[in-house]
Amino acid sequence: MYQVKTNQSAPVSIQFEGATPFMNGAAQNWDLLKINKDNYHIIKDDKTYKVSIVLYNEIEKTLQLRINNRLYTVEVKDRFDILLQEMGMDQLATQKANDLKAPMPGLVLRILVEEQQVVKKGDSLILLEAMKMENVLKAAGDGVIKKIVAQEKTTVEKGQLLIQMV
């Protein structure tokens, strides 16, 4: 079971029984075609949707999706996240920020922080251009900038260390 929420909607419960998705307990009739790792084609209620996964933040459990050329940020909780929340233990998962790594290949346009700067969760750290889009990389938790490894106007690979934090 998953709980999915966008900033524009109430949480929706999603479950799968075989290939059939259930949203808030109601079976959904749709045709899903996986084009490649990050791109899907969906037909639901005689409407076509082109869905691309733009960015996945594993720490915050969010996806940035492009659906028919509109960008959406989606928070996804699995059954374990829901269980921790029900037990009041979800705040224990809040972590101190460690290292910031590039989520995708791109060009570092601007570094928005300095070494020894104190940052809070959600603070903007780096502006990264990827796939002709500007992406703001944010702090996953509270911390202090220990070392800035990345340099402006240089390209980085996915998973490359950009900033060390303590």
* Proportion of strand residues: over 45%
User: What is the structural class?
Assistant: mainly beta
Count of the domains: 2
Report the end-to-end length measured between terminal Cα atoms: 35 Å
What level of helicity do the residues show?
Answer: under 10%
Low-confidence stretches: none
**Helix count, DSSP H or I runs of 4 or more residues:** 1
What is the average of the pLDDT values?
88
User: Total strand count, please?
Assistant: 17
Strands side by side in the biggest sheet: 4-3-2-1-9-8-7-6-5
Shape: globular
Summarize the main sheet.
9 strands, antiparallel
Work out the radius of gyration. 18 Å
Features:
mainly beta, 9-stranded antiparallel beta sheet, OB fold (Dihydrolipoamide Acetyltransferase, E2P), 166 residues
How would you explain this protein's 3D organization?
The chain has 166 residues and is mainly beta. It has 2 domains: 2-91, no CATH class; 94-165, RNA polymerase II/Efflux pump adaptor protein, barrel-sandwich hybrid domain (OB fold (Dihydrolipoamide Acetyltransferase, E2P)), CATH 2.40.50.100. It has 1 helix and 17 strands. Strands 4-3-2-1-9-8-7-6-5 form a 9-stranded antiparallel sheet. The longest helix is centred in the middle third of the chain and has 8 residues, at 79-86. The protein is globular and about 50 Å long.
